[in-house]
Amino acid sequence: MRAIYILPGLILAGALLLSSVFIVDEREKALVLQFGEVKQVVDQPGLGFKIPFVQDVFRYDDRILGLPTQPLEVTPLDDRRLVVDAFARWRIVDLEAFRRAVGSGGVDAARSNLDKIINAEIREVLGGVNSQKVLSEDRTTLMNQIRDNARAKAKGLGVDVIDVRLTRTDLPEQNLEATFARMRAERDREAADEIGRGNEAAQRVRATADRSVVEVVSEARKQAEIVRGEADATRNAIYADAFGKDPEFFAFTRSLTSYERALQAGNSSMVMQPDSEFFDYLRTEKAPAAVPAP
User: Which cellular compartments is it found in (predicted)?
Assistant: First the structure.
């Protein structure tokens, strides 16, 4: 009979013992609540104890958590809208404050609240600078400022914002086409300027070449006229010398030259008086006497 009561007692005692013991993983922290009031904070891994059926254990992730924000539009000082999204890393550091802030919502509620805080800081910080600074590679200062402001506001949630990084900073889709059109117009203007400068340079080269051609041709003609004049002078000197030595022979050779030029092959018609001096040597019945050798 006694064994009948002992066995259920042992089972009940074992159940009470098991329900009073809990294990905290090294990746977790735990809160022991009694009727919604915090009775114990367990921030070290190992075994913990609680009052069965009266106290409850709530576990929270002790690792560094990530939070990708949704894309949002910001308007910098130069009124050039940008689409920005970020990635934040955070961690629960104060379990009691975290429980008071999010209640039974846990990590999901904390993410929602933290997302609002970070988005508000992104709008505030990026709205105070020009878009050129936001789009430049040197924007670490802006990200650190967003992180520090979000960290200060997130203390009430019992979390620490470790880092905030801007993962994308782009123009909105409706602005991309206008931006590309403006870029194309700028490139077309630059191309037109280059073409204009090239045409101007080509015109200068052509003008220089034409001037050089004129100068070279003029100089060649000048030299040709000089040579021709010198040749004519030499020829006239030779003629004069020949005329001085034998006027009759000179007249004869000049007449032969005239006949050669006037009486070409084919039919040549000439109208002149029969007694013209042009026919003096043609009317001679006999050949002139041989010209003595000089």
Answer: Membrane
Tens of pLDDT, residues 155-176? 989 999 999 999 888 777 666 6
- The SS3 of residue 223 is helix
Q: How far is CA 142 from CA 34, 115, 148, in A?
A: 44, 18, 10
Q: Six-digit token pair at 231?
A: 């040749």
H/E stretch holding 49 reads strand 46-49
> Could you tell me which of 84, 109, 89 has the C-alpha nearest to residue 99?
109
Q: What is the pLDDT of residues 51-108, one digit of tens each?
A: 777 778 888 888 999 999 988 888 888 878 888 989 999 999 988 888 888 888 888 9
56: phi > 0 → left, psi -120 to 50 → alpha, else beta; which? beta
Q: Is the pTM of this model over 0.70?
A: no
